């Protein structure tokens, strides 16, 4: 039996090309209107209904006016991980969508309020990148998520109901040591079971931290000081 090798190669090549095209498309044709590179949200199942296109170069972390708590399905037509959040400023429950992923939301149906695109799935669970160079940034949720305030200055007393007793994580992008206190005017003392723990909580230049007891949600003031020669001490904070 004579086999036409050239014809067989052409057929195999054509099938391979067809498969690559099919696998490059979203699973549901309804998503095909989402331009690349974009994250697209839909207020109906399976990419139906109204849509919101979020371009790759967008800088806003808030999804968009009129779209809070509307998204039902999503198509991540980018090479990055899409991260969507229940609260503003990357706060609350997180749902992640891989590059090229599409479908109905699993945990945040009509609950998406903010978003970002990240290089990895793990990066969806942090928000420290929002802190600018030269800033000391405090956050209302662990891992740099939730509301953020950045400043290069000392603060003798945080506003009650806003930042006082509301700090849960810190990023120090200054060149100084950040010193936090549990009372206004850089005073007070932390205790555990009645015993003194610390008079100041230090975050060294370049460091990030999520706070644990007894420091979590206890900060009332902070100041920035030139680092002490011995990083194990807190002399710079108390002088």
Automatic annotation (TrEMBL):
Matches recorded under Pfam families: Inhibitor_I36
Signal peptide range: 1-29
Keyword set, alphabetical order: Signal
Name of this chain's protein: Peptidase inhibitor family I36 protein
